[in-house]
Amino acid sequence: MLPVDQYDRAERPTTPMSVHSSRLPAATVPGTAPASLATAVSFPTLIRPRGTRPTHAPAWNPQRPSSMPHQRYEPIHERVDLPGIDPSARSWPTRRVDTAPLWVPVDLRDGNQALREPMDTPRKRTMFDLFVAMGFKEIEIGYPSASQTDFDFVRHLVEDDAIPPDVTVVVFTPARRDLIERTFESIAGIPSNDGMPRVVVHLYVATAPVWRQVVLGRDRADLLALARDAGGHMARLAEAPHCPDVRFQFSPEVFNATEPDFALEICNAFTELWDACPQRPVIHNLPATVEISTPNIYADQIEYMHRNLDRRDSVILSVHPHNDRGTGVACAELALLAGAQRIEGCLFGNGERTGNVDLVTLALNLYSQGVNPMIDFSDIDVIRETVEHCNRMPVHPRHPYGGELAYTAFSGTHQDAISKGLAHHAARATELAAPAGRAPWAVPYLPIDPADVGRTYEALIRVNSQSGKGGIAHLLNLHHGLQLPRSLQVDFARVAQQAADRDGRELMPKELWEMFQTRYLAPVHDGPVTLSAWRTTETAAGEHEFTAELSISGIETSAKATGNGPLAALTALLAGVGVEAEIVAYSEHAMERGGTSLATAYVQVSRNGTDSWGAGQDTSVLTASVNAVIAAVNRLPR
Ligand SMILES: CC(=O)SCCNC(=O)CCNC(=O)[C@H](O)C(C)(C)COP(=O)(O)OP(=O)(O)OC[C@H]1O[C@@H](n2cnc3c(N)ncnc32)[C@H](O)[C@@H]1OP(=O)(O)O
Ligand SMILES: CC(C)C(=O)C(=O)O
Question: Its annotated pathway (predicted)?
Fold first, then answer.
């Protein structure tokens, strides 16, 4: 339970209760007194007992918003002294990203260390192969000194010769000599590629004040000494004759909560210690290990480092945002504007607590701006399913770009816009004589063409009580080739919406089709008119005769009438037997789908100001039209 009582109530802002008193609801908590100004239910009593399911919404309580102890949290400016960041020297707010950074998936290390069940070798291998297939050129493969499994996986990749020549692998180590040695042991035997190292050894040490004091028990000077010792040990191990050619990476853990001058000092120390040069640059990776500020602050911190790091041309400036505030993607994007060249993250944002920054979102955000992300996302569902398998964790259906519902609209106006947008896109492609998959994309509500990431258009529009005529008609068109006239769309949408509303669920295309058939296409058995046999003849130019054997309310009869077309003759015939109806709308089309030569006709008839629709399908347009007239007439109220 939140420690509400240890904070002084008097300090909490007061709510102007009299202003809101008329809006106080009656009690919504069963068994409690009505909520009123005098007896407002206190916050703790509204919390359901642990382990039980909520059965009601808590009653509105004017005191509640003020009862959380926000005073115990310090803003970043009070936690970290940010000297040296000159606001007038900021360039990131006006820059744009026009090339992809170096992407480094860290799922096999940072993602893996956050899993309930860390990956075994087969799962790690599946994920590694996915990264390679997607085109990642640098991949963090583990923390080899953490466990035998981690060590064995690195050995597995080496011994199976699974690392392609153009891929560099990264192994992660803390600043402890024994663990550094184990890390070097794990990478034995990885050859260079044309004189270029294919291994990065990544050293980390926490530099932020709280970590220095609480976790490591070292002041700045002590920590620098620890770091230098570890870095020096790495440099010596790298010089051993049997050691593969390596590059070095350093991460000042919790960079974003570290005094910028200290972060700079320690990074510069490594640049010098490892003798970084443009041919063999050092990677300085600046993690927002725990996200604590708005992204603009992180951008300032990155720009400060970008401007002040020694031997800038010998440093690859990397970032490693986490997502504690839900702004990991924004931090990474602003960091790129501020001078970062490399981004570490995980696919779909797995990682410690609320995750590492999501590389899928970052890369496809760039793609949606016309920038080549240099990574292949053309089958996003295979990528998602592979990641779900390896992590044993589902991806949220609303996850950007890859979630099951990322391109789906349930709401009527969105569906209408998407449906019009797709038609417009197809027309534009024809106009430009370009394949639809290459024509410029401008479809409302869809930032990218779902087809680009391997999605079909089938799931774009799904129908429930929030949907409108456009979406419903789109589905009938997509799945059954129907091209409903606008006013029939309105008529049918009413029926479909009522059904969706009544059942409180989604209506599948098959159900919509069955509803359409029942309502408009099927013969109306209890309707007054049944045609048993009929024929038409053109008796003169512009004159048609309709002859029929029919039953009117169960009474068999035969009749004949003429009109200026077969349908006009039919309505004249019906009028002659006492069934008045005027045709007010008519359309028909050949069925485009299903490989049949069926035609569908739609007819709207009217009697005494009341309208009704019917539809007919047949290989003959005339038969389809006659059936549509009879269906519409039989649906008129009697
Ligand atoms: C932000 C990050 O993601 S950092 C990476 C975190 N990942 C992991 O921790 C997963 C793998 N870790 C492990 O398997 C284990 O923690 C090991 C093998 C590395 C170490 O295990 P243990 O020796 O049992 O130590 P333990 O897990 O308690 O680690 C804490 C110790 O490491 C020290 N430490 C923490 N960070 C570092 C560092 N970067 N360099 C050196 N020592 C460090 C702590 O001060 C503490 O030391 P103490 O025991 O002297 O107080
Ligand atoms: C890069 C390292 C140290 C890391 O995983 C982090 O800080 O989150």
Answer: Amino-acid biosynthesis; L-leucine biosynthesis; L-leucine from 3-methyl-2-oxobutanoate: step 1/4
Prediction pTM value: 0.85
Q: Rounded CA gap, 561 and 538, in Å?
A: 12
Distance CA 635, CA 528 (A): 9
CATH, range 92-391: 3.20.20.70
Residue identifier of the C-alpha nearest atom 13 of ligand 1: 146
Q: Is 197 left (phi over 0), alpha (psi -120 to 50) or beta?
A: beta
CB-based contact 295:340 (threshold 8 Å): no
Asked whether 143 lines ligand 1 (CB < 6 A), one says yes
Task: Name residues whose C-beta falls within 8 Å of residue 393's C-beta, 6 or more positions apart in sequence.
Answer: 115, 116, 350
Which residues are known binding-site members? 110, 320, 322, 356
Domain with CATH 3.30.160.270 in the chain: 525-635
Q: Pick the atom of ligand 1 nearest to 110's CA.
A: 3
Residue 164 predicted with pLDDT over 80: yes
Ligand 1 midpoint to CA 273 (Å): 24
Q: Is the ipTM of this complex over 0.90?
A: yes
Written out in words, the top-level CATH class of the domain with range 525-635 is: alpha beta
Nearest ligand for residue 256 CA: 2
The residue assigned the tokens 């700045």 is 220
pLDDT in tens, 501-553: 999 999 999 999 999 999 999 877 778 999 999 999 999 999 999 999 999 99
Does residue 568's CB lie within 6 angstroms of at least one atom of ligand 1?
no
From the CA of 223, the nearest ligand is: 1
| Ligand 2 midpoint to CA 475 (Å) | 47
